[in-house]
Amino acid sequence: MILKPTRRSFFLRYFIFPYYLICGIVMIYLANLEVVKIASADFWKYLGIWLALTMIPSLILSFYRRRFGWFFWTLLMNIIGWTGYFYLQSVEEFEQQLKYESLVMLAKNAPYMIFIVVSLIALVIIELYRVSFKYEISRTNISITYGLFGANKQLIISKNITNVLKKRSVIECMLGIGHVIPVTSSGMGAGDTGVFGGMGAGIGAKNIGAGAFMGKTSTEKEFVANPKNCLYGVANPDKAMNFIAHLLVDENKPPHDISGNSEEDNTISDERNS
After folding, report:
1. How many whole angstroms separate alpha carbon 58 and alpha carbon 62?
2. Is the Cβ–Cβ distance between 234 and 7 less than 8 Å?
């Protein structure tokens, strides 16, 4: 059986880029409407709304994925876009220094354009990344191939699989997709999660102390769906899960000799004869 992750699964995984693309287009549309006149006193209010629309989702995603690169890249794009905007606005006779009106509009919309361009480039790269994945299930192993020209390949040996899980959210259930995670004896498919912050207090013989701290203070096992370690975002995950389950059952059956008896049956027969 050969499977590939669906496009809608990667759309959900990298939803931040379509979100930024839509936000940027809407802001450019509103900013250039003739009927919309934003007073200079209200500029900072609209700037705050834009920063909230871009920074808050990236911060939430950073905590959820535990990768703060999502937050810092968004912050960097905002810094570059708004630095260019304020610099160009401070140049005297700004519109006269540019030959074409389209360039003037491009410069004025720089904070939004950078999000649109980056999002479009990211969506193309994500689609190429998705297409490179191929999941192949055979009797002896599960093969995960990805990367340019299938440069990366991982084999999950069937006899090392201790459990098979299906993981999906409510939205993924509605879309008919899910993740099938083969958990191995080495812990592949499982990760750690824990408390990110907390408070503590202590009472000693001479003093009393209390304070707050950040960091993972307690952990527990969770099963992580990642395109590189499972059958990620496949259509009809129940079918794939049942297929793997049947293979594991066949793999764990005791081997049979020519007479059709298993080794266990032969052992019992030998003991009786002796």
Report:
1. 6
2. no
**In this structure, what is the dihedral angle of CA atoms 266, 267, 270, 271, given to the nearest 10 degrees?**
-150
Between residues 69 and 89, the one the model is more confident about: 69
Q: How far apart are CA 5 and CA 227, in angstroms?
A: 8
155 beta partners: 143
Give the contacts of 23 (CB within 8 A, at least 6 positions apart): 50, 53, 54, 112, 115
Beta bridge partners of 214: 197
Q: How much of the chain is helix, strand and coil, in % rounded to 5?
A: 55, 25, 25
Contact 189, 229 (CB under 8 A): yes
Q: Give the tens place of pLDDT for each residue, 222-258.
A: 677 888 888 898 988 888 888 888 877 766 555 554 4
Half-sphere exposure in the Cβ direction for 95 (13 Å, CA): 4
- Backbone φ and ψ of 187, nearest 5°: 95, 10
Backbone dihedral region of 201: left (phi > 0), alpha (psi from -120 to 50 degrees) or beta? Answer: beta
Which spans in the chain are helix H?
A: 7-13, 16-31, 43-65, 69-90, 94-97, 101-108, 110-131, 170-175, 237-252, 263-273
Report whether 180 contacts 164 (CB < 8 A).
yes
Q: How far is CA 154 from the centre of its chain?
A: 19
Question: Which residue in 246, 264, 247, 267 sits closest to 255, CA to CA?
Answer: 264
Contact 158, 167 (CB under 8 A): no
Q: Distance (Å, rounded) from C-alpha 142 to C-alpha 166? A: 16
Task: Tell the residue number behind the tokens 């297929």, with chain if given.
Answer: 243
pLDDT higher than 70, residue 259: no
Cα–Cα–Cα angle for 181, 173, 139, nearest 5°? 30
What predicted TM-score, i.e. pTM, was given to this entire model? Answer: 0.71
